[in-house]
């Protein structure tokens, strides 16, 4: 290319550089292609990097709602306060006819204490008053009974609506509504209380209105409770019922293994009698607030969490006599967990984004390099005509700044359309690279064009100059390697996600404490690529030597060109970096997806699980038979799974999940799933004498083998267990004790299976068809739900978007690199054509030149990406999203990695023919005439 | 193919150009670079093609060598009609029978001098041992045996052109086309390159067609072909009346 135009007269005496507009316009028009490409890169990356932070904030809000919704009653905010004293004037206890109003006052007081922010996020409160749990004293089955009063803040007073289908609402038992009767503290006969029973409870207890329920407390004191009526809930789904489910139907297991609880409903009128029927402090009054997930946002979650913590801190000690409020909730834990998850997700997102940004910056540098190569003759000519270097720089800067800023503005506008609140912060490095790289390279090229004439003639000066160049490069490489090491050290020491308490804000931002660890993978890839770059010339040199000796005549030409271009840093840097980061993102995605899957195996335990409803456990054996007979069902294993079973070890009692199962059947089930095998199950078959062997699993490691445990039972002797190993995980419970059903039965405790695991392709259908009296949990459903969880799906989508963008950047880099080396390549090819090289052979030679760096990237990139994924996996906290207990094992998405490789190679296969088709249009004579070099 | 100098079995011309026209563009702005050019060249001759700048020398050489196609007319090289060949045929022609030396040398920068010289032999699939022998011989012939390992960028212009000549001779072509081979060299070097060409025409028995501006070079040629405004000088008077010149 020659600079013909007559153009400008250099204007000397000027203080400020002034751009020469026609030159600026002419240059921009001549190189519209590369400039537009750079603009497109800036726009796309701006769109991605601009939209992710606000999307993440929105997702964080969804995640808060999701977590609170999932946590169910755990997120309820409870406040207790003692009832006021009811001392009468005569030294006894006086009936308080206004007790129901007191409860209403208490509820209102609690509402006031919430403060406006917290109150706005809560559903209407429900106050409850509950009695201690009593035993039903007839029969041998362990049945328990409780009295409960519900009062939501409806105008009507009292709890949720009911219809009385027999008898009526509980009246005051003696002396009328306003009775202020006084009873002695000790020794009086039991005070009668009237209660209503639900249909189900009444039927199970086989009582009618007017019947008395034979009850006694723990000390054996008889209670006088009479059924006033039988009711049916107008709306059984009213959340208030959830506070005492046994009001509506018998609930088994609530008071220990094999127990069934019933609850009698108190009315405003019978509540004062209940007070007198129990000790002065025996009734528990509580106000329940359930958070309304729909009203939670990421920001409000933060203030609410803080307010909840503050409320809990003001709670008086449990021994306080006064009526002070005692707050109780796990909402703050739930919110903290979400914060940790969000922090982890945003850190993971910043890892991905940093990778995209790094690749984008490199591609922009490569585009600038190409641009300057195209312009070098013109720039040099301009310099020789006397255009000042600052003028030239300003012109180039103007051009690239206009392009970078307008592209970024367009990208940001798009991002704003997708996600309101898109921000500049992440985009700055990309815009800077787009704006500055071109002018910087161009100025250097222009300066070199005039300086070249003064290349030192003497040998030592030349070698010294080479030496400084080499030193400068080594220093740069050392800086990258050191930064990568620092990033890795800080990543492995602190992990990617800040500690829960620091996780107040979204950790997503290009600056701040998280930036260094978040850039570890990108820096690691850069450092790895630099190593590859150092090896590259040696490799192509070797290839060239081989080619020189090879029988294939064409090999040498491609190899020679490849050896000549192998020293070029940017193209290989772009190729390897983007291939590696693409593979990294894909590996992360595959690992997370597999992790989710493993997590669902753990939660469900098989393809399907049937949780037999309490009270229907008698039907379990039949259910097992029916499910097992269904087509496509492999294993069916039934077990008794009971939570909160108390175990004593030495003098300590703690509660764990007890799993009673046929050990060998369970082991077969385990080995048929991806869940880890548990060989220790073989040790559960007892000898029939001595202690029952048990496997124990604990979050904190659990007791060592040989430890003795006692399985505590109400109303039955405890059973002695010996720990013989670690239990496999059963569901998401941390603490599990597992014993063999037959062995336990032999020791005197027959099991009542209530959980059925079903494995096999037809498991889901079989379980759903036979559900009847059981809740069905399908692993596929759970997996779908977990993948759809806001943070998880958001992160998986981001991983995909990043992988796609990175791959596109890599392919673009390949094209740019090919375009940059095209003139020299085709000069050589043209010259070879004059020697008799056939056109189609020219294509092979071109491919021979382009392939080596692409091969290095196609093979080395995925390897590097996987290596980095392996190195960083432990610190990336993926399991906070996948719901796994242990750290994830790396999963290699072979097919997708192979696709990355294939995409790169296929691009070469497209570039070469396209390039040669473009050049073929010109005759050899014209090419030679224009001057091929 | 054989590396031995050919001893011309058939008596006819090695190169026969007949009625070649070549114009660029169309309409009133068309440039008639070659107008009805016809001449023969006997085997073993070294002909100088001279003419002013823009007279059509390069165009003629390109047409003869099959780098460009004439609008009409035929070019027979060693009995083969160049104008009738397809791309592969032309490639074969360039590989086996016609070699070029360019003003700008046209060496392949990433290959050493020896590899440049060996390149046509590789394309012709000459066995390695024979190739190496011939490369050595040719470098010796052009006086660059000591520079075999150097890359073109590390050689002077004159040395590069010698390498280019050695390369042109490598595959023992019948016709050597040189377009201003001394154009970028100083007078003295140019003369030595020209003398070299003269020498190899003799020693290798090739036929050479060399374009040049330089009258001193002309002295070395067996025959001089003058071209002006797209016409051969001898033909100029002959055809002036019949030609419609705009
Ligand atoms: N591709 C082309 N398009 C248009 N005109 C052309 C083209 N190639 C050559 N010409 C014209 O053809 C004429 C002959 O050009 P040619 O290059 O053959 O001259 P030349 O004798 O080699 O000149 P020089 O000694 O300067 O190399 C010139 O007028 C030139 O402008
Ligand atoms: Mg010419």
From TrEMBL, chain A:
GO terms for cellular component: plasma membrane. It is a multi-pass membrane protein. The chain crosses the membrane at residues 35-56, 351-372, 392-418, 424-450, 471-491, 511-533, 554-576, 798-823, 844-873, 893-914. Residues 803-912 form the ABC3 transporter permease C-terminal domain. This is ABC3 transporter permease C-terminal domain-containing protein. Its main location: membrane. It is found in: Cell membrane. Keywords: Cell membrane, Membrane, Transmembrane, Transmembrane helix. It comes from Microbispora oryzae. InterPro entries: ABC3_permease_C. It comes from the Bacteria. The keyword Lipid biosynthesis does not apply. Coiled coil: none annotated.
